[in-house]
Amino acid sequence: MAAIYSLYIINKSGGLIFYKDYGSAGRMDTNDSLRVASLWHSMHAISQQLSPTTGCSGIELLEADTFDLHCFQSLTGTKFFVVCEPGTQHMESLLKVIYELYTDYVLKNPFYEMEMPIRCELFDINLSQAVQKDRVAMLGR
Amino acid sequence: MIGVGKIKQYSNVLDKPLSKGKQEVSLSAFAFLFSELVQYNQTQVDNIAELERRLEDAGYAVGARVLELLCHRDKGNRRETRLLGILSFVHSTVWKVLFGKVADSLEKGTEHEDEYMISEKELLVNRFISIPKDMGTFNCGAFVAGIVRGVLDSAGFPAVVTAHFVPVEGQQRPRTTILIKFAEEVLASFSLIMTLFL
Amino acid sequence: MVPKIDKLVNVLSTADKDVANFQVKLYDEMTTIEGLTEDGMYDATTMMATKLDLIREFFTMPNHHRKRDLIMAPVGPRSGDAIFANVERVNAELFTLTYGATVRQLLTDLEEVEEVNKQLDQMGYNIGIRLIDEFLAKSNVTRCVDFRETAEVIAKVGFKMFLGVTATVSNWDADGTCCSIILEDNPLVDFVELPDTCRGLYYCNILSGVIRGALEMVSMKTEVTWIRDVLRGDDAYELQVKLLKQVPEEYPYKDDE
């Protein structure tokens, strides 16, 4: 079973509001994760502009030698992306589930301030359940 | 008191087919409204105790109306007059109407004669809420405590009602206990009745 | 809870002996999950049949989690009815009375009816900028081609999936930037009568704020006003939604930044 390395959520202005590291491969310190987030935010935007297709919504999948990066951007501009082992399946469905968890446990939490870093215990709990490998496999049936 | 949100007369309620209590909205709609109610109240207070009190007040208004509504609809306008009767009415009837299920448990306090506890593994209002660390033991269940107080008070059983997180062994999340402490006069009249009966 | 645990014990004790039997039990449990298709049940059962820890968790998991984990997000937009049928719902009275308590609190805090109207609109806006994401996530709606489509989607999908009521769109102006959304049913106002002291109150003003906030998050600046209000003696609830400005979807970096 392929592994997920890390998960990022960036707000519409490019600020990293959530970062989670899974396992040892590709572990990064805070500075690096912030760098990846802002780099991805810009690259994503540039790709939108460069794309020959009109109405392109940006890069959805970046395949590298050592990792894949899957990205989902909501119409409201929040980006969710996972970095995972090359060839990991069902990441689009996982990102969709994470988006729904975000609407439940972040946006319905009165103590969460919009656009700010996410510190919600229930989001963490539900997220770790969703990321469990078997669950991901189920989603991709 | 300003009369917004007041319940219409019995005949009017019956006139409206919607008010059989079967209509539903999405849990999300309620969750967003409740979240905003909490956020608004946060802007009106300086400390957590005040926030708790204000949420309780909001709940009280709901509780008082729920009692009216249920008495009209389900009990032919007859009100519960016994202490245990009203407690079980809250734990089962009120809970079922408002939260879609009977509360997990209703217990008598072991240390104090005048205390009762209604517990719920996961209070509906807390479903999506994570309390920040700096807010300590604050529980948005204060709103539900207010509902309970509203029902009890309007039924003639004044009480102090509070909401508390209680850790449960083997569970990641604590449950919420609504602690009901009846006013002295309630217990006095209750024990008087008991004496008469025994 | 008890019967489920019984089942679980059964399942675990027969696990090694008979995988097929096992699947039948799982399948039975699956059939209780609203909205899961036949194929979905079959696949999930096969998938879980040999994974004990997953099954253990499945049997103790609340139903709404099962739904979330087992039902694949459908492709393409969904109807308001379909969404409403599949989301978790609560008694409208809890919602109505909580809203009533909110309005009451504002009247006590702010005293002036005009201020209450403003605050309700602001609270609606705050809700709207959060609620839009749930709307998008659950409805699979993609970017609307024009404002006409947007208004239809709000009325047919938005009102239905959150409040369980349908609304209609009418009174379009010539250039398609202003219309009315008319509510046939309004769960906010059950049991409500406005007393004389609250004459100027727009009791449902939160709704206009929600629409304004939600649309702003998808780059549409709008102005939303009440045209008709049953609580004020009219025969329907009518909201006018006027598109002021469509902020282009361009990337927000300007040359001078």
Describe this entry's structure for a reader.
The complex is a heterotrimer of chains A (141), B (198) and C (257). Chain A has 141 residues and is α+β, with helices and mostly antiparallel strands. Chain A contains 4 helices and 5 strands. A 5-stranded antiparallel sheet of chain A has the order 2-1-5-4-3. The longest helix of chain A has 21 residues, at 30-50. Chain B has a 4-stranded antiparallel sheet. In chain B, helix 3 packs across helix 5 (142-154). Chains in contact: A-B, A-C, B-C. At the B-C interface, strand 1, helix 2, helix 3 and helix 4 of B face strand 1, helix 7, helix 8 and helix 9 of C.
Task: Provide tags for this entry.
heterotrimer, A: 141 residues, alpha+beta, Beta-Lactamase, 5-stranded antiparallel sheet, 5 strands, C: 257 residues, Muramoyl-pentapeptide Carboxypeptidase, domain 2, 10 helices, 53% helix, Trafficking protein particle complex subunit (chain A), endoplasmic reticulum (chain A), Longin-like_dom_sf (chain A), TRAPPC (chain A)
Describe this structure in a few short sentences.
The complex is a heterotrimer of chains A (141), B (198) and C (257). By secondary structure, chain A is of the alpha+beta class.
Any idea what the radius of gyration of chain A is? Answer: 15 Å
Q: What does the largest sheet of chain A look like? A: 5 strands, antiparallel
Strands of the largest sheet of chain B, in order across it? Answer: 2-3-5-4
Please state the average pLDDT score of chain B. 86
Through-space gap between termini of chain A? 15 Å
Query: pLDDT under 50 segments of chain B (min length 5)?
Result: 1-18
Strand content of chain A: 15-25%
Question: Helix coverage percent of residues of chain A?
Answer: 25-40%
Shape of chain A: globular
What is the helix/strand order of chain A?
A: EEHEEEHHH
Largest interface: B-C, 44 and 47 residues
Strand order of the largest sheet of chain A: 2-1-5-4-3
Count of individual domains of chain A: 1
Question: Could you outline the blueprint of secondary structure elements for this entry?
Answer:
The complex is a heterotrimer of chains A (141), B (198) and C (257).
Chain A: E1 4-10, E2 16-21, H1 30-50, E3 61-63, E4 68-73, E5 79-84, H2 91-105, H3 121-131, H4 133-139
Antiparallel strand pairs in A: 1-2, 1-5, 3-4, 4-5
Chain B: H1 10-15, E1 24-26, H2 27-43, H3 48-74, H4 83-99, E2 105-108, E3 115-120, H5 142-154, E4 159-166, E5 175-182, H6 184-197
Antiparallel strand pairs in B: 2-3, 3-5, 4-5
Chain C: H1 2-14, H2 19-31, H3 38-48, H4 52-60, H5 63-70, H6 80-86, E1 89-91, H7 92-110, H8 113-139, H9 147-163, E2 167-170, E3 178-183, H10 205-217, E4 220-228, E5 237-246
Antiparallel strand pairs in C: 2-3, 3-5, 4-5
Helix pairs in contact in C: 1-4, 2-3, 6-9, 7-8, 8-10
